[in-house]
Amino acid sequence: MRIPISTFIAGLLFGGGLTVSQMVNPEKVISFLDVTGNWDPSLAFVMGGALIVTFLGYKLVLKRRGPLFDDRFRLPTRKDIDAPLLGGAALFGVGWGLAGLCPGPAIASASFAGPNAYIFVGTMIATVFIYRFIKARA
Question: Is residue 1 over pLDDT 60?
Answer without folding.
Answer: no
